[in-house]
């Protein structure tokens, strides 16, 4: 069974969580995780460039085959939603520039996949990520969410492969 490396991203303008896993069948192995940041005092273009440069470096170092990006959750603040949209665009751009397969997942789908409940709290997501990836030792919520996104994609990709194999 081939090993596939998935990079999960939890986009944000101030903090963009990332987490990488290797998937071989149903086996998940933690590769790395972290949080990319931008200077809140800098102008928007400079902040986006900083995130793009940091993310491009992570992609170049880890060489994932696929990227899974958490979709925007739009609450009541249009300004926050717009900033999140900019950060998501950077994530999608960096992935496309690297020629990666890109998947996007709604936050509730990720939570349902990892925790079993679509409205699970951040603490529950982090606890399940630590359980599924015991070597991760993840503390930052942004990185835990990114790893959860990668795990959700791994489950989806595994299920999809089984369905395609059954149909063949």
Description:
- By secondary structure, this protein is of the alpha/beta class.
- It has helices at residues 44-62, 78-97, 107-114, 122-132, 141-167, and strands at 4-10, 15-24, 27-37, 66-70, 101-105.
- Strands 3-2-1-4-5 form a five-stranded mixed beta sheet.
- α4 packs across α5.
- The longest helix has 27 residues, at 141-167.
- The two termini are 18 Å apart.
- The mean pLDDT is 90.
What key attributes describe this structure?
168 residues; five-stranded mixed beta sheet; 5 helices; alpha/beta; 51% helix
- Secondary-structure content class: alpha/beta
Count of alpha and pi helical runs: 5
What Rg, in angstroms, do the CA atoms define?
15 Å
* Low-confidence sequence ranges: none
Mean pLDDT: 90
Largest sheet: 5 strands, mixed
Q: Tell the overall outline.
A: globular
Count of DSSP strands: 5
Tell me the series of helices and strands, N- to C-terminal: EEEHEHEHHH
**Strand percent estimate:** 15-25%
Termini separation: 18 Å
- Which percent bin holds the helix content? 40-55%
Strand order of the largest sheet: 3-2-1-4-5
Can I get a quick summary?
The chain is α/β, with parallel strands linked by helices.
Strands, helices and their partners?
Elements: E1 4-10, E2 15-24, E3 27-37, H1 44-62, E4 66-70, H2 78-97, E5 101-105, H3 107-114, H4 122-132, H5 141-167
Parallel strand pairs: 1-4, 4-5
Antiparallel strand pairs: 1-2, 2-3
């Amino acid at each position: 069974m081939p090993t596939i490396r998935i990079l999960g991203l939890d986009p944000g303008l101030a903090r963009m969580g990332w987490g990488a896993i290797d998937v071989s069948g149903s086996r998940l192995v933690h590769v790395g995780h972290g949080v990319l940041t931008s200077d809140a005092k800098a102008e928007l273009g400079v902040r986006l460039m900083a995130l793009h440069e940091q993310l491009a470096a992570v992609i170049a170092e880890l060489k994932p085959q696929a990227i899974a990006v958490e979709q925007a959750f739009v609450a009541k603040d249009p300004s926050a939603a717009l900033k999140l949209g900019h950060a998501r665009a950077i994530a999608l751009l960096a992935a496309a520039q690297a020629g990666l397969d890109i998947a996007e997942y709604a936050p509730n789908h990720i939570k349902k996949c990892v925790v079993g409940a679509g409205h699970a709290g951040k603490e529950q997501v982090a606890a399940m990520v630590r359980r599924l990836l015991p070597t991760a030792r993840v503390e930052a919520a942004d990185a835990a969410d990114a790893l959860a996104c990668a795990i959700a994609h791994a489950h989806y990709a595994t299920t999809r492969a089984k369905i395609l194999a059954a149909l063949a």
